[in-house]
Amino acid sequence: MDIERKDLAIAKRRRHIIYGVIGFVVVALVTVGVSQLKPAAPGVETSTLYMGTVERGTMLRQVRGTGTLVPEEFQWIPAMTEGRVEKIFVQPGEAVTADTVVLELSDPRQIQTGLDAEWRLRAAEADFESLRAQLEGQRLEQEASVVRLKAEWEQAKLRADADAELARQGLLADLNRKLSASQAEELGNRHQFELRRLEATGKSAEAQLSAQRATINQLEALNALQQGQVSALKVKAGIDGTLQEIRVEVGESVTPGAVLAKVVRLDRLKAELRIAETQAKDIQVGQVASIDTRNGVIPGRVRRVDPAAQSGSVTIDVSLEGALPRGARPDLTVDGTIELERLEDVLYVGRPVHATEGATIGLFKVVEEGSHAERVNVRVGRTSVSTIEILEGLQEGDQVVLSDMSTWDEYDRVKLK
Predict the structure, then answer these.
(1) What are phi and psi of 112, to 5 degrees?
(2) To 5 degrees, how large is the angle CA 266–CA 268–CA 272?
């Protein structure tokens, strides 16, 4: 007969409880430990990343923009009169001089007006010559009358002197002496009067000729204007250069002021760059620049900064100081770089993607001998085209990832493979 032992049952139950508690504690500890483990760092192919090393030294600040070459000297050719395009003598790309006839307009009314103005001028000139001849004849007649009266006066004076002498000797009546003296005095007065008439006639003739000459001058100006408009039917280039474009076709009617063509000087070009308004604040006239035409680099200097921004960019004019490479021509697309300043003894690194001046950005710094990269906060300063100043967060010699790492924004650590 078996005897039940209660102490053994109690001991067995106690062991089960202890084992259960131990198991629960172990499971709890494992759970807590696992929950506190950091997620595994994602792997990134190093060959796909653009890396940079922090350096100390001289940092060259630059800004870059695209633009085009434009002529410094050009001539828009407007229509000086209305007409119809009759002929086009020069095509775009051909060299021209200032007197080269680019195209010819036709306008019969303008030609007739020019002829009318010329004939009116010739008629007025003929009237002037006729009037001058007539006045010259009157002057000669007046001068002849003066000469004749002067001779008669002198003869009368001689006769009066002779009669006075005879009267003094008692050989002539005193009445005859008085008559001859009176006649001499009358002729003298008539001579003075004719002299005054001659002077007045000269002034009157001069006034009449001046009036006719003014009419001629007026008709000359009108004729010059009309002939200029007739000449303007043959449209000339105006400057030496190359014809860049023609805006009309044969048979097309044009009005005064309409632009017909454009002539440019290909040997005198400048660059018009468009710089982002956020980068243009430090650009000043006189700064050194370089223009890349993709067939050569031309040195230059900033000549003008547009005071207004358009569509988020500022137009900068750069004068070219070097020889133009082959293929340089108006409207050629170019890249321009402007040197702002040189920063001495500063920390700098290649410019990361989306980095802005004066901001604090997150960069992945290479650690553990290049096996991993950890995110660090970096405060940056002034920026350039390809570099940026480091103010805080990195040291000389640190290697950082400059590529776009937005894909791993939720990670602070990545593994480099």
Answers:
(1) -65, -40
(2) 100
What integer pLDDT is reported at residue 2 of this predicted model? 47
CA distance 270 to 318: 6
Smallest CA-to-CA distance from 259 within 244, 269, 270 is with 244
Q: Determine the CATH number of domain 74-100+239-264.
A: 2.40.50.100
pLDDT in tens, 200-210: 777 878 888 88
- Structural tokens at position 395: 């040291």
And the tokens for 81? 């009169």
Q: Which of 390, 402, 408, 404 is closest to 366 using CA atoms? A: 402
Contact 251, 84 (CB under 8 A): yes
Distance from C-alpha of 365 to C-alpha of 386, rounded to nearest angstrom: 19
Task: Using DSSP bridges, classify how beta strands 413-416 and 43-44 pair: parallel, antiparallel or unpaired.
Answer: parallel
Pull the structure tokens for residue 224.
């010059």
CA 316/CA 303 separation, integer angstroms: 8
Would you tell me how many other CB atoms lie within 10 Å of the CB of residue 168? 11
For residues 293 and 335, give the distance between their C-alpha atoms in angstroms, rounded to a whole number.
Answer: 7
> Looking at the domain that runs over 46-70+266-416, which CATH code has it been given?
2.40.30.170
How confident is the prediction for the chain on average, in pLDDT?
83
Classify residue 324 by its DSSP letter: P
Instruction: Determine the longest span between alpha carbons in the chain, in angstroms.
Output: 228
Tens digits of residue pLDDT in 231-257: 888 989 888 888 988 999 998 999 988
CB 65, CB 274: distance < 8 Å = yes
Query: In the numeric block, which tokens belong to residue 27?
Result: 């499971």
What pLDDT score was predicted for residue 13? 65
What's the pTM value of the predicted model, to 2 decimals?
Answer: 0.58
| Cβ-proximal residues to 273 (8 Å cutoff; 6+ apart), any chain | 65, 66, 67, 315, 316, 317, 318, 334, 336, 338
Query: Closest Cα partner for 108 from 249, 221, 225, 229?
Result: 229
How does DSSP classify residue 369? Answer: G
Contact 335, 64 (CB under 8 A): yes
Domain ranges of the chain: 46-70+266-416, 74-100+239-264, 108-231
In contact, 320 and 271? CB cutoff 8 Å: yes
DSSP state of 167: H
Residue pointed to by tokens 């001659």: 198
Which H or E run contains 155? helix 108-168
Q: What is the CA radius of gyration of the chain?
A: 53
> 131: burial class by Cβ within 10 Å (0-12, 13-18, 19+)?
middle
Distance (Å, whole) CA 176 – CA 10 = 201
